[in-house]
Each structure stands twice: as C-alpha cells, then as structure tokens.
Design a protein that fits this description.
single chain, 419 residues, Rossmann fold, 2 domains, 8-stranded mixed β-sheet, 44% helix, 13% strand, globular
Amino acid sequence: MMDIAVIGLGFVGLTTALGLSEKGYRVHGYDADSLKMSSYRSGVVPFHEPGLKPALDRHINRGFILADRLEDAVRPAQVIFYCVGTPRGTDGSVDLTYILEATRQTLQAIDTTNFRVLTYKSTIPPGTVRDAIVPFIEELGFRAGRDVGVASNPEFLAEGRAWDDFINPDRIVIGTNDELSTRLLEQVYTRFDAPIHTVSPTTAEFIKYLSNTLLATLISFANEMAMLADQVGDIEIARAFKILHQDKRWSGAPAGMTGYVYPGCGFGGYCLPKDTEAMYMQGRTRGFDAQGLRHVLQVNERVKDFVVEKVAAETPASRTIGVLGLAFKPNSDDIRDTPTRAIIQRLLDRGYGNIIAYDPLANDVFDRTYHLPIAYAGSLREIAQAADVFVLLTAWDEFRRNRDLFAGKKVFDFRYCLS
C-alpha cells in the first residue's frame, strides 16, 4: 500500500486526506494548529462541509493517521501533498511563507535514500514551483527531479460540495518535470474515474488561476450588467438573467461556451463589437461607467497590438508574411470588424510590404471591402509555397488538417488551434 502525507488539514487538506483514504491509501496527516489536530482526534470537523464528518469517522486511526509531528507524517510517505495556506500579502501578492516553511521542515526530516514527490496542492501563482520552490529546495542541498520530485497538483474543490468534487473529479491536473514524479502521481490517481492531464508545473498553476479568475470575472460581469440595467430602468433583472441562461451554448451545444472562453486575436463580426460598445455607451449616457465593458473593448484592441509585436519581434520586414484567415470566424465569409484587417494594417504600418493572404471563403469580399495593398493566394498550397512566415488568424479546419504544408517554416498560431 502506498503511504501518502498531507501537510495542512484545513478545508482542502482534510478533504484530500480523507478522500485518498477513501480510495484505499494510508494517509498520514499533519497540521501545525494543535487545536485543529485535537478536534480531529475527537472526531470533530471544526468547519461545515458535507460528507467530511462521516468520512472522518470511517477513516480516523485506520486509513487516516494523525501524526504528532510533521516529520512523522513525511518520513514514510512516497507522495507528500502540501495543502497549507497561501494568504494574501499586504501588497496583494501571495505569501509563500507557510509553503516554504513546510518544505524546509520536510527536507530536514528526510534523506535521499527514497525518492519522494513534493506535491503542491495549495493555490500558488504561475511560476512559483519554477522560480521559488525549486531554487529553495536546491539551496537546501536537494536536487529537484533527482533527489526529490516537485509537482503542482491544483485542487478544484467548491465549498459545500468538496467531498463529491474530490471523489468524482471532472479532471485531474498533474504538473511535473520528471518521469518518476509523473508515474507516482498517475499511480495515485488511477483510482479516480477522471481524465488525467500531465503538464508542466507552471501550466498546472496557471490552470487553477484560469478557473478562479474566470469565475470572478463572470460574477463581476453579472453584477456590472445588473447595475447598468438599474440605471436604464424598467428591466426585470432576475428574469433577464434566467432567460440568458437558456442559451443552449451553456448546456451542451456543439463547442458551447468553450469556443468563447479560448484565446485568439480578438472578437469581430457584426454583433459583438457593435453591441458591447453600444451597451457601454448606454451606461455612459446615464452617468454609469461600466468599467468591465470598457476593459473588454480595450483588451480587444490591445490583443491586436500583441499579435503585431510578437510577429515584429521575430520577423524581419523583408520577409513575405502569409496571413491565414480573413473572416472573423471559421465557416463564414463575414469580414465585418474582423481582427485580421486591423492586424494587416498595423503590419503594413510597420513596413511589412510583402503580405499575401488566404481564406477559404473571404478573399474576394475582404479585398473589395478594405482595398489593402496585399496579395491573395487562391489555395492553401499556394500560400504555403509563397510565404516565409505565417500568421494564423482564423481557426479554419483546413489549416489544421494541412499543417504539414507549413513544415520547416515559422507559424504564429494566434488562434492556438494547431497544437
């Protein structure tokens, strides 16, 4: 039986420890808070979370063993999960004090005879393992990836349903840089019926923040729109949002909302730019500055500058640039407010005079509408042969299916669709 340690037994840590016990592992738990430890020994969960009390009763002193000291928990363990607090610092950044102290105490208690994976389940900003934890470990004389493994394994637990979220996860993310750590953590999670995604530690950390910041953004969006509606007046706010939720893209339509919550080079077309700006101006005329909507419009412009800066930083102006995609979205010839127009114009302004473009449907309408001094290719193969560098701006399936045509040439994939 694999021995696992869980350091920090708050909301996340206790759920993790008891959930792993439920899956048949021997879990050694430790928390620096002696009152919390006494409470668990008495069979009491000092916070409300459905499912944890019965699980504690089932596993205490069986699969879940409370350690008197941190070193007693980590010494027998092959995998050590850190679930300690990462509080907000005075400047808004994350305070890593508790994470690093728990790591230090662990390394003081173990040697390099047995390989262990130090696994950070606490929420830590992207780059923390790479830039803070690994250097700290190596300063203490351990070689990351050789003496000990280092991994990020974020949790996706919602208060009020944490037990079910842990036992029946929708996905498991393992961030590692060495094969042995990957194998050990995959072994832990083979008892869970969920897809396992193995990525870099920084990617794993980023995924957790993607999840939380998206939820925060959605909440603030809803609140701002409700405030704007109040300014307009005569709007049934609750009914409006409940009817919004009936959009089939929320509940399983092809691509659904995932097609919108995915990076690209900006939104275009007839509706989104016009209606977002109109709604912002509707608030302005009533003395309400919808800052969220203003920032949406600003980011939609900034991302075009980002695209041009990335291309310019790596591409001499003498090169022939092949622009892949002119319509604002695939399976359409709509070029109204397409991001491609602004990006091409900004490249021309930067001195890129050799631009050739191709779109399966929109070549002619784009040329007639915008009259830009660029050339057009009649096929994907033609542009693949003519250009030195490619800038992909519309996620057509044709580009994905024929990516081998670009072999050996640089492709800036700003729709993130080729990987």
